[in-house]
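We modelled the chain as a single entity of 290 amino acids. Its sequence is:
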Amino acid sequence: MRARYPDIAGHVDREGVSLGYEVFGDGEPTVLLLPTWTIIHSRFWKMQIPYLARRFRVITYDGPGNGRSDRVTDPERYSADSHALDAEAVLRACGVERAVVVGLSLGAAYGVRLATLRPGLVSGLVMIGPSIPLTAASPERERTFQTFLEPAPPSPIGWQKYNLDYWRTDYRDFAEFFFSQCFPEARSTKPIEDSVGWATETGPDVLEAESLSPPPEDPWDELVSQVACPSLVIHGTRDRISPHRRGVRAARLSGGTLLTLEGSGHIPNVRDPVKVNLALRDFVERVMAP
């Protein structure tokens, strides 16, 4: 059961890959809610869609590899540039000339790339818990990046589970650990269960491809500095995936506003939806004000 079903559901083909999208409401302007890391699909926006669609037209879509979109294992297809071109294709298919774009985690990187590759399409950009390497991750996570392709330890613990060999051995256990880190807030059992369930709709081959995707040619700090539209960064102080200092730097580089959510983890749009929804509403209305 969904709180709001789409008014339009369709697919758009970009370079042989079918992307499933949904449209909710018919207000103005359009708000594009981007996909995030392919381990989950667009249902993670379920707390935003019913509220925002009362005021605006809302578009979501599944990136390649999950949900209603084709499964792809070509790393090139998961680059930030490719994700930006996917977003453009969805907007064009829906007849949208300009949109306020919202991205969570890796989706924030895709939003930055869309805003820099196709600035005429983006009237405003919201980055929630941006997983953009503007600062170092935690020491534990930095170590996992270095050992990602090495054999997994016999009994991995914690971030040692962020390992391709272990994903192929016990993918569900990795997903359970990962989402426990995404939701450090109390009483997060339901969102963790939802997210693990969505994660089972893809698999390690897809995540491997995305993890090995090429970075953009320009450094990320330069790209974020090139964002010309108004921007808002929302970041929780208890984010264990992408530290709060990244949000601080993203806001500074983009010349945007920083909204810090005390005690929130990596996915505040699920655990603190009222604050996030109100912030999104106010930002959209401010951007579009005459």
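As a brief sanity check on the tokenised model: The chain has a mean pLDDT of 96. The chain is about 40% helix and 15% strand.
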